[in-house]
């Protein structure tokens, strides 16, 4: 079964059809996707700005990273769950849009960047995180995260925009 | 002049027709500006509200959080208002009968009212009664999230 056939199957399933045709459920899921985005990316934005030395530069990085982590992960969980539902509901159309694959690609790159940061730097944040100017690699990770997630949002917003054309 | 007449006048004004006649890609840029503004504003509100609720960046004093997020809050609000007006004006009359449009602006009015009165008053004092701080944080966050939710619903019921 090809990817397009699989998308069509999801799209035409009872669940996918019910979601797509529901008056309140679909906008509600869209709304949650948006709120999750503001929570996860908004807070991640503050973490990235701290890494760049632009937000609370006198505060040790660990004291920004650790207390915000559960909120960040919670937000991302909401985005992923609602994102999957939104995909199921409109899979047949979305799978034909190149911008959807750009979005997935940017998410993958942002994930790799976050994983690299976590493994290489995040674990011993106590050793380097107390300075206001941080190591170049750390600042680079913050900048990369900001850029990639912005591209994810741009590509994501273009999905419904291009679906209606 | 009634509100509907005002909306009609805005939409049919030279400016309204000019913005409405711009390329569709321009609409996408406006909507992206609206989302960027929303992220900045909601993240600033969230960080401050969590602090009021005794969550999030607890080690940072509230006044410090308030001070360091103020610029982002105002940048976000400015982006939202400018992009919002440009989205609204060329299609003003189509929003008139949309219940979620009015719900959004009632919630926005309440959110701004709380922000400029209770929220500011509480945020200016670090040593608050805890229940007042928590109630303010919860109220402010709920109202702003309500604005975002109602806003997202507008487009589905146009």
UniProtKB/TrEMBL annotation, chain A:
It holds the Pfam family DUF6644. Keywords: Membrane, Transmembrane, Transmembrane helix. The chain crosses the membrane at residues 34-56, 68-88, 100-117, 137-159. It comes from the Bacteria. Residues 30-160 form the DUF6644 domain. The keyword Magnesium does not apply. This is DUF6644 domain-containing protein.
UniProtKB/TrEMBL annotation, chain B:
The keyword Transmembrane applies. Keywords: Membrane, Transmembrane, Transmembrane helix. It holds the Pfam family DUF6644. Residues 16-156 form the DUF6644 domain. The chain crosses the membrane at residues 35-60, 72-95, 101-119, 131-154. This is DUF6644 domain-containing protein.
């Amino acid at each position: 079964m090809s990817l397009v056939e699989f998308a069509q199957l999801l799209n035409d399933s009872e669940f996918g059809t019910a979601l797509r045709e529901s008056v309140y459920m679909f906008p509600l899921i869209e709304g949650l996707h948006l709120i999750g985005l503001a929570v996860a990316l908004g807070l991640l934005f503050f973490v990235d700005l701290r890494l760049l030395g632009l937000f609370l530069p006198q505060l040790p990085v660990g004291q920004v990273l650790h207390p915000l982590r559960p909120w960040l992960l919670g937000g991302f969980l909401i985005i992923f769950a609602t994102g999957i539902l939104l995909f199921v509901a409109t899979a047949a159309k979305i799978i034909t849009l190149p911008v959807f694959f750009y979005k997935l690609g940017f998410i993958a790159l942002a994930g790799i960047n976050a994983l690299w940061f976590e493994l290489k730097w995040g674990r011993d944040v106590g050793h380097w995180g107390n300075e206001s100017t941080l190591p170049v690699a750390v600042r680079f990770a913050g900048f990369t995260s900001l850029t990639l997630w912005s591209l994810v949002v741009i590509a994501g917003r273009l999905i419904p925009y291009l679906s209606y054309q | 002049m009634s509100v509907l007449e005002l909306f009609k006048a805005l939409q049919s004004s030279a400016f309204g027709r000019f913005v409405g006649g711009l390329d569709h890609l321009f609409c996408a840029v406006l909507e992206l500006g609206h989302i960027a503004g929303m992220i900045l504003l909601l993240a600033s509100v969230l960080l401050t509200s969590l602090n009021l609720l005794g969550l999030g960046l607890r080690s940072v004093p509230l006044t410090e959080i308030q001070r360091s997020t103020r610029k982002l809050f105002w940048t976000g609000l400015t982006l939202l208002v400018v992009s919002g007006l440009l989205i609204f004006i060329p299609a003003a009359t189509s929003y008139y009968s949309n219940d979620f449009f009015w719900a959004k602006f009632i919630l926005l009015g309440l959110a701004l009212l709380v922000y400029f009165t209770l929220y500011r008053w509480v945020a200016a004092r670090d040593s608050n009664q805890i229940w007042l701080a928590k109630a303010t944080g919860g109220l402010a966050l709920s109202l702003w999230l309500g604005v975002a939710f109602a806003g997202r619903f507008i487009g589905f019921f146009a």
